[in-house]
Automatic annotation (TrEMBL):
It comes from the Eukaryota. It comes from Sitophilus oryzae. Keywords: Lyase, Magnesium, Metal-binding. The keyword Magnesium applies. Its EC number is 4.2.1.68. One of its GO terms (biological process) is carbohydrate catabolic process. This is Mitochondrial enolase superfamily member 1. The keyword rRNA-binding does not apply. Its cofactor is Mg(2+). PROSITE patterns: MR_MLE_2 (PS00909). GO terms for molecular function: L-fuconate dehydratase activity; magnesium ion binding. Belongs to the mandelate racemase/muconate lactonizing enzyme family. ENOSF1 subfamily.
């Protein structure tokens, strides 16, 4: 296939000369930001990747992590980077699916995957950097880059291996062609009104009641109508927290709850029956993220109570998503921009969800996740599903100040990005301050005894 877009730069200048990965961590555990029943002391972090061309142009990608272990993902990026260095980047875009498979099926490294865990997180960071670079080369935000690609070209970035029993290339092409109808009008609508979001900001499990009250009221005043709270540690506390939230937001607004994988299957069913009186739209991650049949059992048992199952933020690849969709084990599909192998694989999940009639409501909130998923859901709106009805994107107001082009929320809607790329470029001063363990902020916290210095 010929290059889908012309680039004025010479081939030599388009060669990848360097791939660099950094361990960047923020001390969010100090305020219990991000805390839930499973992850009680998160330090929101990322493995941050920079891909540099000979011309000097850089693409940035990342994968969200939770503190300890980020260094393992960084090492995995370093181990995979040889596949990219020396390549002419436009040659990758000509057959992106082939390159994606070369990374995920690297003949030796795949043994410690395959297509899951640390190696797949590293894959996501690399692939996200390449999409950021593609957007910058074409001077387009990634959502618009995706929307402008002809259906046949968009299809060429996806590896359909292992999912053709649910969706074939021909079926996917048909869905993408259908998505072209009315696309330009939807782009105008998106640019005018943005895409709806919900907030988890008032719902972290470690927050005291007064902070929950304050934040819930703040986000009501900002126009939010959809809220999510964390549950799962103690039933009595969950009842009190849901009652507290409902007293503030009322029943005219939507409430969801999230257990972050802590329950057994029957425990999830029994627990949620106690919370059913608070009328949650969904229970998110009620049990192990790998338990397809367990989720299906929970979904079936809770359906008479009007409670749906949402999951996917820790779904490790398109094959597991396929099985969740086949088994009717989720009603809301929560893709994560960095958990599976970057945009290429995420597109396949959107296509399967579209075919099977399941709404996609992306997970976000961690470092850079809001910045990335906005592009994906906006592409879905303008070029695939054609609607935002019954769909929302998570928003958490943390760490956005560290990005050059942070996501912008107005009236509880993500505004359509205009800057070229994937919104993944971090400010140099933020990296200098929070790179672990040598950043200036970490040096200061080590000196004060707030955190242990791992080098000692």
């Amino acid at each position: 296939m010929s290059c889908p877009h012309s680039c004025s730069t010479t081939e030599e200048n388009l060669k990848v000369v360097k791939v660099e990965a950094k361990d960047v961590r923020f001390p969010t555990s100090l305020q219990s930001d991000g805390s839930d029943a499973m992850h009680t002391d998160p330090d929101y972090s990322c493995a941050y990747v920079t891909v540099t061309l000979k011309s000097g142009l850089q693409g940035h990608g990342l994968t969200f992590t939770n503190g300890r272990g980020t260094e393992i993902v960084v090492q995995a990026v370093n181990s995979l980077s040889y596949l990219l260095v020396g390549q002419v980047v436009t040659d990758i875009y000509k057959d992106f699916a082939k390159f994606w498979r070369s990374v995920t099926s690297e003949s030796q490294i795949r043994w410690v995957g395959p297509e899951k865990g640390v190696t797949h997180l590293a894959t996501a960071a690399l692939i996200n950097a390449l999409w950021d670079l593609w957007g910058k080369l074409l001077k387009k935000p990634v959502w618009r880059l995706l929307a402008d690609l002809e259906p046949e070209v968009l299809l060429s970035v996806i590896d359909f291996r292992y999912i053709t029993n649910v969706i074939t290339k021909e079926e996917a092409l048909s869905l993408l062609k259908q998505g072209q109808v009315g696309k330009e009008q939807r782009i105008k609508t998106l640019q005018s009104t943005g895409y709806p979001c919900y907030t988890t900001q008032a719902g972290w499990l470690g927050y005291p009641d007064e902070k929950i009250r304050e934040l819930a009221q703040k986000y009501i005043d900002l126009g939010y109508t959809v809220f999510k709270v964390k549950v799962g540690r103690n039933l009595e506390d969950d009842i009190k927290r849901c009652e507290l939230i409902r007293n503030i937001i009322g029943y005219e607004r939507t409430l969801m709850v999230d257990a972050n994988q802590v329950w057994e299957v029957q425990e999830a069913i029994d627990w949620m029956k106690h919370l059913a009186r608070f009328k949650p739209l969904w229970i998110e991650e009620p049990t192990s993220p790998d338990d397809v049949l367990g989720h299906a059992e929970i979904a079936k048992a809770l359906k008479p109570y009007g409670i749906a199952v949402a999951t996917g933020e820790m779904c490790c690849n398109r094959v597991l998503f396929k099985q969740f969709l086949q088994a009717e084990a989720l009603e809301y599909c929560q893709i994560d921009s960095a958990r599976i192998g970057g945009i290429n694989e995420i597109l396949s999940v959107y296509l399967m969800a579209k075919k099977l009639g399941v709404k996609v409501c992306p997970h976000a909130g961690g470092v850079g996740l809001c910045e990335m998923v906005q592009h994906l859901q906006m592409w879905d709106f303008v070029a695939l599903s054609g609607t935002s009805e019954g769909r929302v994107v998570e928003f958490v107001d943390q760490q956005h100040e560290h990005f050059v082009n942070p996501c912008i929320i107005k009236n509880a809607h993500y505004t359509a990005p205009t800057a070229p790329g994937y919104s993944t470029t971090m400010k140099p001063e933020s990296i200098a301050a929070y790179e672990y363990p040598n950043g200036s902020e970490w040096q200061s916290m080590f000196a004060k005894g707030i955190f242990h210095d791992p080098r000692k």
